[in-house]
Design a protein that fits this description.
Elements: H1 5-16, H2 42-51, H3 54-58, H4 77-94, H5 99-108, H6 117-127, H7 134-149, H8 156-163, H9 174-197, H10 208-214, H11 218-233, H12 243-261, H13 270-286, H14 293-300, H15 305-314, H16 318-329
């Protein structure tokens, strides 16, 4: 009997990818063993599972940076995820690393994000004694919450990359390191673009020295950053930027935090968003019976109530959180018989 398509692809990986690449056939596997697909290697199969899950579809209605913006061209959590994926695939292909693994990690890295972006995440973290982190919640989703509590049974390498995608993370694979940098590159590039579109800043407001180093517009900066990662990381197990570019990017992040992320007219609405998350959390803490049946079952089965509340609220889209807030806290019209 001849090779399956999957086995042919695995052999192609072995023959053509970098010695530092994570080969599909060398994966540490899944928590629950299952038969292999005859067409798709493990990481490609993981990518498809993420792409088809409900949590991924909900990202289209979750805030990236600007809450409920008036306009169709501002990024959502989904468009951000796709931009991270594109950056990661470009880098992985150029460095001869495993493109399927990089793409799977990128598509799954923000599945656990709350409604209203980092404002919602910060509020849940402050309310829950066990803490809340969107990266850990993303792992919890793919391990336990998706598919009615079965999880997606993803490989260890994909879950490790999702867990460690933030700046302070330390991914175990070079593909995970790619996503970690791709995320930073994507959100800086897109957040500047959205802030300019919103009239919060203009190109000339950005520090001149940073612009001279990275590029004089968003397109030049994206091109510069991607090229620098490729040049600096070629034939190396470590994915990194050059010292000069890394320093300039750090300066740009500091500027964005002080002028956009923490102090801009677009962030004023975050006070209302945090209040909404706080009120919902307190309501479910006081009235757990208002949680859907499967979340009540999770409490009955021994999951801490605060974890279950975080599961439910963090899974909401912006619109659904507003809808539930209105249901519990806004007065409703009523009528008396005869009037």
């Amino acid at each position: 009997m001849g090779q399956t398509i999957r086995e042919m692809i695995e052999q192609m990986e072995k023959d053509t990818l970098s010695p530092y690449a994570t080969l599909s056939q060398n994966s540490r596997g899944r928590d629950v063993d299952e038969p292999q697909c005859d067409i798709r290697p493990l990481f490609q199969r993981d990518r498809d599972r993420i792409l088809h899950c409900k949590s991924f579809r909900r990202l289209k209605n979750k805030t990236q940076v600007f809450l409920t913006p008036q306009g169709d061209h501002y990024r959502t959590r989904l468009s951000h995820t796709l931009e991270v994926s594109q950056n990661a695939r470009t880098l992985a292909k150029a460095l001869r690393l495993n493109e399927d693994l990089a793409e799977a990690i990128a598509l799954g890295h923000d599945l656990g994000h709350t409604p209203f972006g980092h404002a919602g995440e910060a509020q849940l973290n402050s309310m829950c004694d066990l803490g809340f982190s969107h990266s850990e919640q993303s792992v919890r989703i793919v391990e336990k919450l998706e598919k009615g509590g079965q999880g997606l049974n993803l490989t260890w390498e994909v879950r490790d990359g999702i867990r460690n995608h933030q700046t302070e993370g330390s991914p175990a694979t070079p593909e995970g390191q790619i996503v970690r940098l791709s995320d930073k590159i994507a959100y800086l590039h897109s957040d500047i673009d959205d802030a300019i579109r919103a009239g919060i800043l203009c190109e000339e407001d950005l520090p001149l020295q940073v612009r001279q180093t990275l590029g004089m517009n968003t397109t030049e900066r994206l091109d510069k950053l991607i090229h620098d990662v490729i040049i600096t990381s070629k034939d190396s197990p470590k994915i990194r930027m050059s010292e000069e570019i890394d320093q300039a990017m750090s300066e740009l992040r500091k500027y964005m935090f002080s002028h956009v992320y923490k102090d801009s007219v677009a962030k004023v609405e975050e006070v209302k968003a945090k209040r909404m998350i706080r009120e919902l959390y307190e309501h479910y803490d006081d009235h757990p019976d208002d949680l859907p049946e499967r979340y009540l079952q999770a409490i009955f089965d021994g999951t801490p109530t605060e974890t279950v509340i975080c599961d439910y609220i963090s899974g909401m889209t912006d619109q659904y959180a507003i809808y539930k807030f209105n249901e519990y806290f806004m007065p409703k019209a009523w009528e008396v018989d005869g009037f």
